[in-house]
Amino acid sequence: MSTRPAPQSFPVSVETLVIGAGAAGMVAALSAQEASQEVLVLERDAVPAGSTALSAGLIPAAGTAQQRAAGIEDSPARFAEDIQRKAHGEADPALVRALTEAIPEAVAWLTDGLGLPLTLVEDFDYPGHSRRRMHGLPDRAGASLVDALRSLCEARDIPIVCDRRVETLFTDAAGEVAGAAARLPDGTAEEIGARRVILACNGYGGDKARVARHMPQIAEALYFGHAGNTGEALGWAEALGLKTAQLGAYQGHGNVAHPHGILITWAVITEGGVQVNAEGRRFWNEAQGYSEAARAVLAQPGGQAFTIFDARIAGVARQFADFRAAEAQGAVRRAETPEALAKLFDLPAEALARTMAEAEAARASGAADTFGRHFGATPPLAPPYCGVRVTGALFHTQGGLAVTPEARAVRADGRAMHSLFAAGGAAVGVSGSGDSGYLSGNGLLAAVGLGRIAGRQPL
Ligand SMILES: Cc1cc2nc3c(=O)[nH]c(=O)nc-3n(C[C@H](O)[C@H](O)[C@H](O)COP(=O)(O)OP(=O)(O)OC[C@H]3O[C@@H](n4cnc5c(N)ncnc54)[C@H](O)[C@@H]3O)c2cc1C
Fold this sequence. Notes:
Blueprint lengths: L1 E4 L6 E8 L3 H12 L4 E4 L7 H5 L4 E2 L4 H5 L6 H11 L6 H21 L5 E2 L13 E3 L5 H14 L4 E2 L3 E7 L5 E7 L5 E11 L8 H7 L7 E2 L8 H9 L3 E2 L4 E8 L4 E2 L3 H4 L3 E3 L13 H9 L5 E7 H7 L3 H8 L4 E3 L2 H7 L4 H17 L19 E13 L2 E2 L6 E3 L5 E7 L19 H15 L3
The structure holds flavin-adenine dinucleotide.
Protein backbone atom coordinates (compact mmCIF):
# COMPACT_ATOMS: atom_id res chain seq x y z
CA MET A 1 0.00 0.00 0.00
CA SER A 2 1.16 3.53 -0.65
CA THR A 3 0.36 7.23 -0.52
CA ARG A 4 0.84 9.59 -3.49
CA PRO A 5 0.11 13.20 -4.42
CA ALA A 6 -3.37 13.47 -5.93
CA PRO A 7 -3.62 13.76 -9.71
CA GLN A 8 -4.93 17.02 -11.27
CA SER A 9 -8.37 15.47 -11.60
CA PHE A 10 -10.16 12.21 -10.93
CA PRO A 11 -12.42 10.31 -13.36
CA VAL A 12 -14.94 9.90 -10.53
CA SER A 13 -15.32 11.84 -7.28
CA VAL A 14 -17.61 11.41 -4.27
CA GLU A 15 -18.12 13.30 -1.07
CA THR A 16 -17.52 10.40 1.34
CA LEU A 17 -15.47 7.38 0.36
CA VAL A 18 -15.62 4.39 2.70
CA ILE A 19 -12.94 1.70 2.50
CA GLY A 20 -14.26 -1.67 3.65
CA ALA A 21 -17.78 -3.06 3.86
CA GLY A 22 -17.91 -4.69 7.28
CA ALA A 23 -20.08 -3.38 10.11
CA ALA A 24 -17.99 -0.21 10.49
CA GLY A 25 -18.03 0.65 6.79
CA MET A 26 -21.70 0.01 6.19
CA VAL A 27 -22.83 1.78 9.37
CA ALA A 28 -20.62 4.74 8.35
CA ALA A 29 -22.05 4.71 4.82
CA LEU A 30 -25.67 4.60 5.99
CA SER A 31 -24.99 7.39 8.48
CA ALA A 32 -23.19 9.59 5.94
CA GLN A 33 -26.01 9.21 3.46
CA GLU A 34 -28.47 10.11 6.18
CA ALA A 35 -26.38 13.29 6.63
CA SER A 36 -27.07 14.02 2.94
CA GLN A 37 -23.63 13.05 1.70
CA GLU A 38 -22.92 11.23 -1.54
CA VAL A 39 -21.27 7.97 -0.48
CA LEU A 40 -19.30 5.21 -2.16
CA VAL A 41 -18.03 2.05 -0.44
CA LEU A 42 -15.10 0.05 -1.84
CA GLU A 43 -14.70 -3.56 -0.71
CA ARG A 44 -11.83 -5.87 -1.60
CA ASP A 45 -13.87 -9.09 -1.53
CA ALA A 46 -16.45 -10.28 -4.05
CA VAL A 47 -19.11 -10.11 -1.33
CA PRO A 48 -19.00 -8.07 1.91
CA ALA A 49 -18.35 -10.23 4.93
CA GLY A 50 -15.26 -9.26 6.93
CA SER A 51 -14.68 -10.31 10.50
CA THR A 52 -18.17 -9.02 11.21
CA ALA A 53 -19.59 -12.06 9.42
CA LEU A 54 -17.47 -14.38 11.59
CA SER A 55 -18.67 -12.79 14.81
CA ALA A 56 -21.78 -13.41 16.85
CA GLY A 57 -22.89 -9.93 15.83
CA LEU A 58 -23.43 -8.81 19.40
CA ILE A 59 -23.26 -5.07 20.09
CA PRO A 60 -22.85 -3.91 23.70
CA ALA A 61 -24.83 -0.79 24.61
CA ALA A 62 -25.98 0.71 27.91
CA GLY A 63 -29.24 2.53 28.46
CA THR A 64 -31.21 1.04 25.58
CA ALA A 65 -34.94 0.48 25.22
CA GLN A 66 -34.26 -3.27 25.13
CA GLN A 67 -32.60 -3.07 28.55
CA ARG A 68 -35.39 -0.94 29.97
CA ALA A 69 -37.97 -3.46 28.74
CA ALA A 70 -36.02 -6.17 30.58
CA GLY A 71 -35.92 -4.07 33.75
CA ILE A 72 -32.16 -3.51 33.54
CA GLU A 73 -30.87 -0.20 34.84
CA ASP A 74 -27.70 0.78 33.06
CA SER A 75 -25.87 3.86 31.84
CA PRO A 76 -23.01 4.84 29.52
CA ALA A 77 -20.99 5.87 32.58
CA ARG A 78 -21.35 2.41 34.14
CA PHE A 79 -20.40 0.80 30.84
CA ALA A 80 -17.36 3.09 30.61
CA GLU A 81 -16.28 1.97 34.09
CA ASP A 82 -16.56 -1.68 33.05
CA ILE A 83 -14.46 -1.02 29.93
CA GLN A 84 -11.72 0.72 31.92
CA ARG A 85 -11.72 -1.93 34.66
CA LYS A 86 -11.12 -4.64 32.06
CA ALA A 87 -8.60 -2.47 30.17
CA HIS A 88 -6.63 -1.85 33.39
CA GLY A 89 -7.37 1.86 32.96
CA GLU A 90 -5.35 1.95 29.74
CA ALA A 91 -8.13 2.90 27.31
CA ASP A 92 -8.36 6.51 26.07
CA PRO A 93 -11.05 8.01 28.36
CA ALA A 94 -12.28 10.43 25.67
CA LEU A 95 -12.77 7.58 23.21
CA VAL A 96 -14.44 5.39 25.83
CA ARG A 97 -16.82 8.20 26.63
CA ALA A 98 -17.58 8.93 22.97
CA LEU A 99 -18.31 5.27 22.24
CA THR A 100 -20.38 4.50 25.30
CA GLU A 101 -22.46 7.63 24.73
CA ALA A 102 -22.89 7.04 20.97
CA ILE A 103 -23.76 3.35 21.06
CA PRO A 104 -27.26 3.44 22.63
CA GLU A 105 -28.33 5.91 19.94
CA ALA A 106 -26.77 3.66 17.29
CA VAL A 107 -28.66 0.62 18.60
CA ALA A 108 -31.93 2.59 18.66
CA TRP A 109 -31.24 3.85 15.12
CA LEU A 110 -30.52 0.32 13.87
CA THR A 111 -33.62 -1.03 15.61
CA ASP A 112 -36.25 1.69 15.24
CA GLY A 113 -34.80 3.72 12.40
CA LEU A 114 -33.63 0.92 10.12
CA GLY A 115 -35.80 -1.94 11.35
CA LEU A 116 -33.20 -4.49 12.50
CA PRO A 117 -34.81 -6.68 15.18
CA LEU A 118 -31.99 -6.38 17.73
CA THR A 119 -32.80 -8.11 21.00
CA LEU A 120 -30.96 -8.22 24.30
CA VAL A 121 -29.09 -11.33 25.41
CA GLU A 122 -30.92 -11.80 28.69
CA ASP A 123 -30.01 -15.27 29.81
CA PHE A 124 -26.32 -15.14 30.64
CA ASP A 125 -23.54 -12.79 31.69
CA TYR A 126 -20.42 -11.81 29.79
CA PRO A 127 -17.24 -11.53 31.88
CA GLY A 128 -16.54 -8.01 33.03
CA HIS A 129 -19.96 -6.57 32.18
CA SER A 130 -21.79 -5.52 35.33
CA ARG A 131 -25.08 -5.48 33.38
CA ARG A 132 -26.55 -7.55 30.57
CA ARG A 133 -26.07 -5.27 27.57
CA MET A 134 -25.35 -7.36 24.45
CA HIS A 135 -27.73 -6.70 21.57
CA GLY A 136 -27.98 -8.86 18.47
CA LEU A 137 -30.14 -10.29 15.76
CA PRO A 138 -32.21 -13.29 16.83
CA ASP A 139 -29.84 -15.91 15.38
CA ARG A 140 -26.82 -14.27 17.11
CA ALA A 141 -24.84 -14.48 13.86
CA GLY A 142 -22.63 -11.70 12.51
CA ALA A 143 -23.26 -13.00 8.98
CA SER A 144 -26.89 -11.97 9.39
CA LEU A 145 -25.79 -8.53 10.60
CA VAL A 146 -23.58 -8.01 7.53
CA ASP A 147 -26.32 -9.21 5.20
CA ALA A 148 -28.89 -6.96 6.85
CA LEU A 149 -26.59 -3.91 6.62
CA ARG A 150 -25.85 -4.67 2.97
CA SER A 151 -29.58 -4.95 2.20
CA LEU A 152 -30.12 -1.58 3.89
CA CYS A 153 -27.36 -0.01 1.76
CA GLU A 154 -28.83 -1.56 -1.39
CA ALA A 155 -32.32 -0.35 -0.54
CA ARG A 156 -30.92 3.17 -0.18
CA ASP A 157 -28.88 3.02 -3.40
CA ILE A 158 -25.57 3.28 -1.58
CA PRO A 159 -23.08 1.78 -4.00
CA ILE A 160 -20.85 -0.93 -2.52
CA VAL A 161 -18.36 -1.71 -5.25
CA CYS A 162 -16.79 -5.11 -4.59
CA ASP A 163 -13.55 -6.63 -5.89
CA ARG A 164 -11.81 -3.30 -5.24
CA ARG A 165 -8.76 -3.58 -3.00
CA VAL A 166 -7.74 -0.07 -2.07
CA GLU A 167 -3.96 0.21 -2.23
CA THR A 168 -3.23 3.91 -2.41
CA LEU A 169 -4.41 7.04 -0.65
CA PHE A 170 -3.96 10.34 -2.50
CA THR A 171 -2.91 13.45 -0.59
CA ASP A 172 -3.19 17.16 -1.38
CA ALA A 173 -0.71 19.95 -0.74
CA ALA A 174 -1.97 20.39 2.83
CA GLY A 175 -1.36 16.73 3.61
CA GLU A 176 -5.08 15.97 3.65
CA VAL A 177 -6.47 12.90 1.91
CA ALA A 178 -8.09 13.58 -1.45
CA GLY A 179 -9.02 10.14 -2.75
CA ALA A 180 -7.89 6.58 -3.24
CA ALA A 181 -6.86 4.07 -5.88
CA ALA A 182 -8.20 0.52 -5.89
CA ARG A 183 -6.89 -2.57 -7.65
CA LEU A 184 -9.33 -4.71 -9.63
CA PRO A 185 -8.95 -8.50 -9.96
CA ASP A 186 -7.68 -8.05 -13.56
CA GLY A 187 -4.79 -5.94 -12.26
CA THR A 188 -6.07 -2.58 -13.47
CA ALA A 189 -6.54 0.33 -11.07
CA GLU A 190 -9.35 2.82 -10.51
CA GLU A 191 -8.82 6.29 -9.05
CA ILE A 192 -11.58 7.98 -7.07
CA GLY A 193 -11.53 11.47 -5.63
CA ALA A 194 -13.16 12.14 -2.26
CA ARG A 195 -13.73 15.05 0.06
CA ARG A 196 -13.28 12.69 2.94
CA VAL A 197 -12.25 9.07 3.43
CA ILE A 198 -13.37 6.70 6.17
CA LEU A 199 -11.00 3.79 6.81
CA ALA A 200 -13.16 0.82 7.74
CA CYS A 201 -10.82 -1.93 6.55
CA ASN A 202 -10.18 -3.40 10.02
CA GLY A 203 -6.80 -4.23 11.52
CA TYR A 204 -3.73 -6.35 10.77
CA GLY A 205 -4.63 -9.82 12.08
CA GLY A 206 -4.22 -11.17 8.53
CA ASP A 207 -0.67 -9.79 8.23
CA LYS A 208 1.62 -12.37 9.83
CA ALA A 209 4.64 -10.09 9.84
CA ARG A 210 2.84 -7.32 11.73
CA VAL A 211 1.33 -9.84 14.17
CA ALA A 212 4.80 -11.27 14.84
CA ARG A 213 6.20 -7.76 15.36
CA HIS A 214 3.51 -6.37 17.62
CA MET A 215 2.13 -9.44 19.42
CA PRO A 216 4.71 -12.24 19.25
CA GLN A 217 2.98 -14.16 22.03
CA ILE A 218 0.09 -15.09 19.70
CA ALA A 219 1.96 -15.15 16.38
CA GLU A 220 1.95 -18.94 16.08
CA ALA A 221 -1.76 -19.30 16.86
CA LEU A 222 -4.54 -19.83 14.39
CA TYR A 223 -5.85 -16.51 13.01
CA PHE A 224 -9.61 -16.82 13.19
CA GLY A 225 -10.55 -13.42 11.78
CA HIS A 226 -11.10 -12.32 8.19
CA ALA A 227 -8.06 -13.17 6.03
CA GLY A 228 -8.42 -9.92 4.07
CA ASN A 229 -7.68 -7.72 7.07
CA THR A 230 -4.07 -7.19 6.14
CA GLY A 231 -3.27 -3.89 7.81
CA GLU A 232 -3.57 -1.31 5.02
CA ALA A 233 -4.96 1.29 7.42
CA LEU A 234 -1.87 0.96 9.58
CA GLY A 235 0.40 1.10 6.55
CA TRP A 236 -1.18 4.35 5.37
CA ALA A 237 -0.97 5.77 8.88
CA GLU A 238 2.75 5.05 8.92
CA ALA A 239 3.24 6.55 5.47
CA LEU A 240 1.26 9.70 6.38
CA GLY A 241 2.97 10.14 9.73
CA LEU A 242 -0.25 9.66 11.71
CA LYS A 243 -0.50 8.65 15.33
CA THR A 244 -1.14 5.00 16.08
CA ALA A 245 -1.76 3.45 19.47
CA GLN A 246 -1.68 0.21 21.44
CA LEU A 247 -0.46 -1.89 18.51
CA GLY A 248 0.17 -4.89 20.78
CA ALA A 249 -3.49 -5.11 21.81
CA TYR A 250 -5.62 -7.93 20.49
CA GLN A 251 -8.65 -10.07 21.13
CA GLY A 252 -7.89 -13.74 21.44
CA HIS A 253 -10.33 -16.54 22.16
CA GLY A 254 -9.65 -19.72 24.07
CA ASN A 255 -12.75 -21.67 23.11
CA VAL A 256 -12.53 -22.56 19.44
CA ALA A 257 -13.65 -26.13 18.77
CA HIS A 258 -10.70 -28.12 17.47
CA PRO A 259 -10.20 -29.34 14.80
CA HIS A 260 -13.62 -28.12 13.65
CA GLY A 261 -12.66 -24.43 13.89
CA ILE A 262 -16.00 -23.29 15.29
CA LEU A 263 -16.38 -20.66 18.00
CA ILE A 264 -17.92 -22.02 21.19
CA THR A 265 -19.62 -19.22 23.08
CA TRP A 266 -18.07 -18.26 26.41
CA ALA A 267 -21.54 -18.64 27.90
CA VAL A 268 -20.55 -22.26 28.53
CA ILE A 269 -18.01 -20.89 31.04
CA THR A 270 -19.95 -18.00 32.56
CA GLU A 271 -22.87 -20.37 33.12
CA GLY A 272 -20.60 -22.61 35.20
CA GLY A 273 -18.43 -24.75 32.91
CA VAL A 274 -14.68 -25.29 33.33
CA GLN A 275 -11.65 -25.95 31.16
CA VAL A 276 -9.26 -28.85 31.73
CA ASN A 277 -6.06 -29.87 29.97
CA ALA A 278 -5.02 -33.24 28.54
CA GLU A 279 -4.17 -34.34 32.11
CA GLY A 280 -7.78 -33.77 33.13
CA ARG A 281 -6.80 -30.84 35.37
CA ARG A 282 -7.96 -27.25 35.42
CA PHE A 283 -5.21 -24.73 34.77
CA TRP A 284 -6.57 -21.20 35.30
CA ASN A 285 -9.38 -18.97 36.46
CA GLU A 286 -11.62 -19.12 33.41
CA ALA A 287 -13.82 -16.32 34.72
CA GLN A 288 -11.17 -13.76 33.71
CA GLY A 289 -12.35 -13.74 30.12
CA TYR A 290 -12.13 -15.41 26.75
CA SER A 291 -9.48 -13.17 25.22
CA GLU A 292 -6.73 -14.08 27.68
CA ALA A 293 -8.04 -17.68 27.50
CA ALA A 294 -6.24 -18.03 24.15
CA ARG A 295 -2.84 -17.73 25.83
CA ALA A 296 -3.87 -19.93 28.77
CA VAL A 297 -5.09 -22.71 26.47
CA LEU A 298 -2.18 -22.48 24.04
CA ALA A 299 0.22 -22.94 26.98
CA GLN A 300 -1.29 -26.38 27.73
CA PRO A 301 0.09 -29.65 26.32
CA GLY A 302 -0.67 -29.77 22.60
CA GLY A 303 -2.02 -26.20 22.75
CA GLN A 304 -5.42 -27.67 23.54
CA ALA A 305 -7.98 -27.85 26.31
CA PHE A 306 -11.36 -29.44 26.94
CA THR A 307 -14.29 -27.31 27.94
CA ILE A 308 -16.67 -29.18 30.23
CA PHE A 309 -20.27 -28.13 30.88
CA ASP A 310 -23.69 -29.78 30.92
CA ALA A 311 -26.92 -30.11 28.97
CA ARG A 312 -28.57 -27.14 30.68
CA ILE A 313 -25.68 -24.90 29.62
CA ALA A 314 -25.78 -26.35 26.11
CA GLY A 315 -29.40 -25.20 26.02
CA VAL A 316 -28.30 -21.61 26.72
CA ALA A 317 -25.46 -21.81 24.18
CA ARG A 318 -27.74 -23.14 21.48
CA GLN A 319 -29.07 -19.64 20.74
CA PHE A 320 -25.78 -19.13 18.85
CA ALA A 321 -25.68 -20.37 15.27
CA ASP A 322 -22.02 -21.34 15.80
CA PHE A 323 -22.85 -23.57 18.74
CA ARG A 324 -25.58 -25.30 16.76
CA ALA A 325 -23.08 -25.85 13.95
CA ALA A 326 -20.56 -27.29 16.43
CA GLU A 327 -23.18 -29.72 17.70
CA ALA A 328 -24.18 -30.68 14.17
CA GLN A 329 -20.55 -31.44 13.34
CA GLY A 330 -20.08 -33.62 16.40
CA ALA A 331 -17.66 -31.27 18.19
CA VAL A 332 -19.84 -31.25 21.34
CA ARG A 333 -19.94 -34.68 22.95
CA ARG A 334 -22.12 -35.93 25.81
CA ALA A 335 -21.84 -38.57 28.51
CA GLU A 336 -23.70 -39.52 31.68
CA THR A 337 -20.63 -39.59 33.94
CA PRO A 338 -17.31 -37.71 34.15
CA GLU A 339 -15.53 -41.02 33.55
CA ALA A 340 -17.49 -41.70 30.35
CA LEU A 341 -16.88 -38.13 29.17
CA ALA A 342 -13.15 -38.61 29.83
CA LYS A 343 -13.18 -41.70 27.65
CA LEU A 344 -14.69 -39.78 24.73
CA PHE A 345 -11.74 -37.37 24.74
CA ASP A 346 -9.06 -39.80 25.81
CA LEU A 347 -8.54 -38.00 29.12
CA PRO A 348 -7.48 -39.71 32.39
CA ALA A 349 -10.87 -40.64 33.87
CA GLU A 350 -9.91 -40.48 37.52
CA ALA A 351 -8.28 -37.07 37.15
CA LEU A 352 -11.27 -35.60 35.31
CA ALA A 353 -13.73 -36.97 37.87
CA ARG A 354 -11.62 -35.49 40.70
CA THR A 355 -11.32 -32.14 38.93
CA MET A 356 -15.06 -31.93 38.39
CA ALA A 357 -15.75 -32.91 42.00
CA GLU A 358 -13.34 -30.19 43.22
CA ALA A 359 -15.06 -27.60 41.06
CA GLU A 360 -18.44 -28.66 42.48
CA ALA A 361 -17.10 -28.38 46.03
CA ALA A 362 -15.88 -24.84 45.29
CA ARG A 363 -19.21 -23.94 43.75
CA ALA A 364 -21.10 -25.30 46.76
CA SER A 365 -18.84 -23.48 49.24
CA GLY A 366 -19.42 -20.13 47.56
CA ALA A 367 -15.75 -19.31 48.16
CA ALA A 368 -13.07 -18.74 45.56
CA ASP A 369 -11.36 -21.91 44.32
CA THR A 370 -7.59 -22.40 44.20
CA PHE A 371 -7.43 -20.37 40.95
CA GLY A 372 -9.40 -17.51 42.47
CA ARG A 373 -12.60 -18.25 40.58
CA HIS A 374 -16.01 -17.66 42.13
CA PHE A 375 -18.73 -19.78 40.57
CA GLY A 376 -21.41 -17.42 41.80
CA ALA A 377 -24.99 -18.60 41.67
CA THR A 378 -24.50 -21.09 38.84
CA PRO A 379 -26.19 -24.44 39.49
CA PRO A 380 -24.02 -27.56 39.87
CA LEU A 381 -23.16 -29.36 36.64
CA ALA A 382 -25.52 -32.31 36.19
CA PRO A 383 -25.67 -35.27 33.81
CA PRO A 384 -25.64 -35.49 30.91
CA TYR A 385 -22.26 -33.74 30.85
CA CYS A 386 -20.92 -32.11 27.69
CA GLY A 387 -17.39 -31.56 26.47
CA VAL A 388 -15.63 -30.02 23.51
CA ARG A 389 -11.96 -30.06 22.53
CA VAL A 390 -10.79 -26.46 22.02
CA THR A 391 -7.77 -24.41 21.12
CA GLY A 392 -6.78 -20.74 21.33
CA ALA A 393 -6.88 -18.31 18.41
CA LEU A 394 -6.24 -14.70 17.46
CA PHE A 395 -9.56 -13.07 16.57
CA HIS A 396 -8.67 -9.50 15.77
CA THR A 397 -6.18 -6.77 16.54
CA GLN A 398 -7.18 -3.92 18.84
CA GLY A 399 -4.47 -1.40 18.08
CA GLY A 400 -4.73 1.03 15.19
CA LEU A 401 -4.98 4.66 14.22
CA ALA A 402 -5.37 7.04 17.12
CA VAL A 403 -8.68 8.87 16.68
CA THR A 404 -10.43 11.84 18.22
CA PRO A 405 -13.90 11.37 19.74
CA GLU A 406 -15.16 12.42 16.27
CA ALA A 407 -13.32 9.45 14.71
CA ARG A 408 -10.79 11.73 13.00
CA ALA A 409 -7.28 10.43 12.39
CA VAL A 410 -4.61 12.35 14.29
CA ARG A 411 -1.30 13.65 12.97
CA ALA A 412 1.94 13.00 14.83
CA ASP A 413 1.83 16.56 16.21
CA GLY A 414 -1.64 15.92 17.68
CA ARG A 415 -3.68 17.88 15.10
CA ALA A 416 -6.81 16.13 13.83
CA MET A 417 -7.17 15.41 10.11
CA HIS A 418 -10.12 17.06 8.34
CA SER A 419 -10.44 14.45 5.62
CA LEU A 420 -9.48 11.13 7.16
CA PHE A 421 -11.47 9.07 9.64
CA ALA A 422 -11.06 5.58 11.06
CA ALA A 423 -13.72 3.25 12.42
CA GLY A 424 -13.90 -0.30 13.73
CA GLY A 425 -10.73 -2.35 13.71
CA ALA A 426 -8.85 0.27 11.68
CA ALA A 427 -8.86 2.54 14.73
CA VAL A 428 -7.36 1.91 18.13
CA GLY A 429 -9.86 0.14 20.36
CA VAL A 430 -10.64 0.56 24.03
CA SER A 431 -8.94 -2.64 25.17
CA GLY A 432 -5.67 -1.41 26.63
CA SER A 433 -2.31 -2.64 25.47
CA GLY A 434 -2.40 -6.46 25.61
CA ASP A 435 -4.88 -9.32 25.37
CA SER A 436 -6.45 -9.20 28.81
CA GLY A 437 -8.02 -5.75 28.40
CA TYR A 438 -10.62 -6.84 25.89
CA LEU A 439 -14.14 -6.59 27.26
CA SER A 440 -16.68 -8.68 25.32
CA GLY A 441 -18.16 -6.65 22.52
CA ASN A 442 -15.35 -4.09 22.26
CA GLY A 443 -14.98 -5.09 18.60
CA LEU A 444 -18.47 -4.23 17.42
CA LEU A 445 -18.66 -1.35 19.88
CA ALA A 446 -15.84 0.28 17.89
CA ALA A 447 -17.24 -0.84 14.54
CA VAL A 448 -20.82 0.32 15.02
CA GLY A 449 -20.02 3.19 17.41
CA LEU A 450 -17.15 4.77 15.46
CA GLY A 451 -18.86 3.94 12.15
CA ARG A 452 -21.89 5.90 13.30
CA ILE A 453 -19.78 8.78 14.62
CA ALA A 454 -17.55 8.95 11.52
CA GLY A 455 -20.48 8.72 9.13
CA ARG A 456 -22.30 11.63 10.77
CA GLN A 457 -19.39 14.07 10.65
CA PRO A 458 -19.92 17.01 8.28
CA LEU A 459 -17.90 17.41 5.09
C1 LIG B 1 -14.85 -15.26 15.26
C2 LIG B 1 -15.05 -13.85 15.74
C3 LIG B 1 -16.08 -13.57 16.65
C4 LIG B 1 -16.28 -12.27 17.09
N1 LIG B 1 -17.35 -12.00 17.91
C5 LIG B 1 -17.62 -10.71 18.26
C6 LIG B 1 -18.81 -10.36 18.98
O1 LIG B 1 -19.70 -11.16 19.19
N2 LIG B 1 -18.95 -9.06 19.38
C7 LIG B 1 -18.01 -8.12 19.06
O2 LIG B 1 -18.14 -6.97 19.46
N3 LIG B 1 -16.94 -8.42 18.31
C8 LIG B 1 -16.72 -9.68 17.89
N4 LIG B 1 -15.63 -9.95 17.11
C9 LIG B 1 -14.85 -8.83 16.60
C10 LIG B 1 -15.64 -8.14 15.48
O3 LIG B 1 -16.01 -9.10 14.53
C11 LIG B 1 -14.81 -7.06 14.81
O4 LIG B 1 -14.24 -6.22 15.78
C12 LIG B 1 -15.68 -6.22 13.90
O5 LIG B 1 -16.43 -7.06 13.04
C13 LIG B 1 -14.83 -5.28 13.09
O6 LIG B 1 -15.64 -4.66 12.12
P1 LIG B 1 -14.97 -3.87 10.94
O7 LIG B 1 -16.07 -3.36 10.09
O8 LIG B 1 -13.97 -2.93 11.48
O9 LIG B 1 -14.13 -4.97 10.16
P2 LIG B 1 -14.58 -6.14 9.16
O10 LIG B 1 -15.92 -6.65 9.48
O11 LIG B 1 -13.47 -7.11 9.13
O12 LIG B 1 -14.70 -5.39 7.78
C14 LIG B 1 -13.56 -4.88 7.13
C15 LIG B 1 -13.80 -4.98 5.64
O13 LIG B 1 -12.78 -4.26 4.96
C16 LIG B 1 -12.38 -5.00 3.82
N5 LIG B 1 -11.04 -4.57 3.46
C17 LIG B 1 -9.89 -4.81 4.13
N6 LIG B 1 -8.86 -4.21 3.49
C18 LIG B 1 -9.38 -3.57 2.42
C19 LIG B 1 -8.82 -2.77 1.39
N7 LIG B 1 -7.51 -2.51 1.32
N8 LIG B 1 -9.65 -2.27 0.42
C20 LIG B 1 -10.98 -2.52 0.46
N9 LIG B 1 -11.57 -3.29 1.42
C21 LIG B 1 -10.76 -3.79 2.39
C22 LIG B 1 -12.47 -6.44 4.28
O14 LIG B 1 -12.57 -7.33 3.18
C23 LIG B 1 -13.75 -6.41 5.13
O15 LIG B 1 -14.90 -6.68 4.37
C24 LIG B 1 -15.41 -11.24 16.66
C25 LIG B 1 -14.37 -11.52 15.75
C26 LIG B 1 -14.19 -12.81 15.28
C27 LIG B 1 -13.09 -13.07 14.30
